[in-house]
Amino acid sequence: MSKEKLMVIKEADLTNNCPECFNQDLKLSFYQKHYASKFAYRVSDEISHQLICNKCNSTIYPVSWTEDIERTFDYYQKMAQPQPASRSFTSLFWILLFGGIAIVAAGIYFLFQQNLI
Length: 117
Fold this sequence. Notes:
Layout: E1 3-14, E2 26-36, E3 40-53, H1 67-79, E4 86-89, H2 91-116
Antiparallel strand pairs: 1-2, 2-3, 3-4
């Protein structure tokens, strides 16, 4: 079972007004998904975002954004540079792969040795 983890790639404190409490203390965060399992580690190209008011602790969804928040979001979205999507294998994967190849090669070797005698 792979574990999914959201890694922060960009955080910004915004001075726009909160649509809920009209305070100017917002936090915008951009996340990138990372998957880890026993055999592989994968970085996806999927990016998500979250806008939270630090005073009323409410999540502000795009439906209630003002034009100022949208402009600021577009600016910070361009600044958020995610890691490229990639996949790397763990040492356990490589040990099992080369161990399996060695067992198959040894089996073929002993099979040919029995036929030659």
